[in-house]
């Protein structure tokens, strides 16, 4: 999805299709995710009008889904997310409990994440989702990313105090899995065995995408989630959209496999993308 834009900036839209065309196609993609039975569908860079359009066109009231609107203006920032989730899972979710996390440096406020909490009554456990959109490297440096990551990590630490909390971090971090802010700041490892042993660590399965061929993706798969040749000095593909999970999901109570983490090409039907990022899909089944 494109960022929230006003009428003035819309005239400078670089995409060929109109905003209505693009939101319409995005809605078709969301509908396909709903038809596929995803438990959670997380959207970023959507404003209130986008969310209203999507939920109306998918007839969400009559569907097996409901949603939490995370669009909010706070402290000069725009938090612009939305989560659709299944009614049949009987999740207890309180929209008033959505938390906006920010990081302040040199008089500047920066978005860290939005925290959503869902209580799964059938198993007596809580799933916490942190949706993030960190600033691009044009407006942030390594120190800023490290500060953002450390603030997010402190929030995660609070959730880890409760053994029934299962934590998922996802979004556009604008840095790759090997960046210091991801490894040291968020304390995210590429090794599952180590995460199981050191339960405070997070597991980042997106490391696997870094080994894909840059010039010849396997079976037509995309090499990463973001393509930018102009500033890609050593590579054109960048794995900046990621999903991280807490150790709970690696226990015998859940059936997680790295093969269940995939990049979804949502732009195959248009020669003009609805987003400059591809989607990430993760499947974790209760054992």
Main features:
single chain, 287 residues, alpha+beta, Deoxyribonuclease I, Chain A, 8-stranded mixed β-sheet, 3-stranded antiparallel β-sheet, 6 helices, 17 strands, 22% helix, globular, disordered N terminus
Describe what you observe in this structure.
The two termini are 34 Å apart. This protein has helices spanning 7-10, 19-36, 48-57, 142-160, 180-185, 192-197, and strands at 40-44, 65-69, 72-74, 77-79, 81-86, 91-93, 99-105, 108-120, 125-133, 165-172, 188-189, 202-203, 226-227, 237-238, 241-246, 254-264, 279-286. By secondary structure, the chain is α+β, with helices and mostly antiparallel strands. The chain has 6 helices and 17 strands. The model is unreliable at 1-13 (pLDDT under 50). Helix content is 22%, strand content 33%. The strands form 5 sheets. Strands 6, 7, 8, 9, 10, 11, 12 and 15 form an 8-stranded mixed beta sheet that branches. Strand 9, helix 4 (142-160) and strand 10 (165-172) form a beta-alpha-beta unit. The longest helix has 19 residues, at 142-160. It has one domain (7-286): Deoxyribonuclease I, Chain A.
